[in-house]
Write a structure and sequence with these properties.
The complex is a heterodimer of chains A (265) and B (255). Chain A is of the alpha/beta class and 265 residues long. Helices cover 31% and strands 25% of the residues of chain A. Chain B is built from 10 helices and no strands. The chains are: A alpha/beta (265), B mainly alpha (255).
Chain lengths: 265, 255
């Protein structure tokens, strides 16, 4: 199977006043079409740099980023992004916020079709009836749902999620996890999820990549066998407990708090 | 309905109370007209010189507004340059602060000498010079504090810098811009009147004030002050109305 996203031996360093600060050092990542990969790792290990590389917002010092068989050289319209900060435009209604990407990206949709699609996405994430509200009238979880709709409106091949649920309370977060599964069923995408939450990673992704501490390289890859549509109960099975244990151990190695015995990549 | 009535009645009552207090203060101290005019002295002053108030008020008003418009154009441009370029910000800030620190009253004779006889130009120039600073600063701060994520959501789709500016940076800066415009509007009035009073050339409310001073017509001087305050209030609320139209989204309903 062809990988939609492929990252090969990427190295990158930021220039700071006290010399170069390496953040990525030999990063490998491959996501098949329709796959959903979660990336976990210690704080400040370069996870967000990774999303900016895939989105073409920056170029690595060395190594290659491939998207759909093409070398990524700059931003491309086939990417959708959502961040921890939902960055909705306060002066636009929710509907107009979601339509924003279509004002940049060339689209075949007529204005009416675009609006219909936006309404469909809103209903998919449980925001029907909020089309004409202002972002300031929505709760944090609802804003994040709207931000997700905006990331999907132009039917991107790749959805990049940079800790989108990080600032939400635990219950809202679990709600949104289930929403994500519902969305993926109806609106298939290839996804990269950056997260700090190990439970989130095994609940949403079908592969979890653990990055080492800075400078980050791919330290460990855990496949999550598909079990069909997941429910929250799946998080409390022995398999899930095993997966979480493995990941927790790997994170401890990445943080340098546990010896790296046979840390296989 | 009740809320609307309140919104109009409360400020009106406050003005009435203020005028009554002022009248009482003059009456109880027995101040003569050449020391302090009372509100009751003002209507005769307006009646006697109403045509002067109209024509000179108009001169003051249009020169203030033109100066302010120039300040908006120049201040926005300067703010954009400083907001987008770190180097330009570092380069221009000390110059700008220094320029702003110069008391504008000292600039009046210089300007009057440089552009001798061009009274309209001089006055507009001073209104402009005194009022562009807050606009430039607020626009530059608004642009330079734009969260990178806002840029990224459009940049990741291949949007140009110009698109990002029009769709995100500019509207996001509007609340700061209008905050600064409210300050600039009163400053522009100060600039206009500074020129009209310090370098009198027979035009504008400042000149009327000056003629009141030379004739020891104290009620006239006070009447000019009140007329200036009135014009200031009118312009201020024009800005508030524009703000409601263009940046009304930034207003949060209380509670």
């Amino acid at each position: 199977m062809q990988n939609l996203i492929e990252i090969k031996g990427v190295r990158h360093a930021y220039q700071t006043d006290s010399g170069p600060l390496p953040v990525l050092d030999g990063l490998e990542l491959a996501v098949p079409e329709g796959g959903f990969v979660a990336v976990v790792g210690p704080s400040g290990c370069g996870k967000s740099t990774l999303t900016r590389l895939i989105a073409g917002l920056m170029k690595p010092d060395s190594g290659e980023v491939w998207l759909h068989g093409e070398r990524v050289k700059g931003p491309r319209a086939t990417v959708g992004m959502a961040f921890q900060n939902p960055v909705l435009l306060e002066w636009r209604s929710i509907l107009k916020n979601i339509l924003l990407p279509l004002e940049i990206v060339p689209t075949k949709l007529s204005k009416k079709q675009a609006e219909e699609r936006a309404r469909f996405l809103l209903s998919l994430v449980g925001l029907e009836g909020f089309e004409d509200k202002r972002p300031s009238e929505l709760s944090g979880g609802m804003r994040q749902r709207a931000s997700l709709c905006r990331a999907l409106i132009h039917q991107p091949e790749v959805l990049i999620l940079d800790e989108p649920f990080g600032a939400l309370d635990a219950f809202t977060r679990e709600d949104l996890w289930q929403t994500m599964h519902r969305v993926k069923e109806r609106e298939p995408f290839t996804g990269v999820l950056i997260t700090h939450d190990l439970r989130e990673s095994i609940f949403l992704a079908d592969q979890v990549v653990v990055l080492s501490g800075r400078p980050a390289r791919t330290q460990y890859v855990l496949d999550i066998p598909s079990r069909g549509p997941r429910t929250l109960d799946d998080l409390y099975t022995p398999e899930a407990a095993d997966q979480l244990n493995i990941l927790r151990h790997q994170i401890q190695i990445a943080q340098g708090r546990a010896p790296a015995e046979e840390a296989r990549a | 309905m009740n809320r609307h009535l309140r919104a109009i009645a409360v400020p009106l009552i406050a003005v009435a109370v203020f005028l009554a207090f002022w009248e009482w203060l003059v009456w109880v101290n027995g101040w003569p007209k050449f020391k302090m005019a009372a509100p009751s002295d003002l209507p005769p002053a307006y009646q006697r010189h109403w045509h002067l108030f109209l024509s000179m008020g108009w001169q003051t008003l249009w020169r203030t507004v033109v100066g302010l418009l120039l300040a908006v154009l120049f201040g926005t441009l300067l703010g954009m340059i400083m907001g987008f370029s770190r180097t330009m910000r570092d380069a221009l800030y000390p110059l700008l602060v220094g320029f702003n620190a110069i008391p504008k009253a000292t600039v009046v004779p210089i300007v009057a000498l440089m552009f001798v006889g061009q009274h309209d130009f001089n006055t507009v120039l001073l209104a402009f010079m005194i009022s562009f600073f807050p606009i430039a600063v607020s626009v530059s701060i608004g642009l330079s504090t734009l969260e990178p994520e806002y840029r990224d959501i459009l940049r990741a789709l291949g949007a140009s810098q110009a698109t990002i500016f029009w769709k995100i940076a500019l509207p996001k800066t509007l609340p700061e811009f209008f905050g600064a415009l409210k300050v600039a509007v009163t400053l522009a009035f100060i600039g206009t009147n500074l020129m009209e009073i310090v370098s009198p050339h027979g035009r504008g409310l400042g000149a009327l004030f000056d003629s009141g001073r030379t004739n020891s017509d104290f009620p006239l001087m006070f009447a000019v002050l009140i007329a200036l305050a009135f014009l200031g209030i009118v312009l201020y609320y024009v800005v508030v109305a524009l703000e409601k139209i263009f940046a009304g989204w930034a207003e949060r309903s209380p509670g």
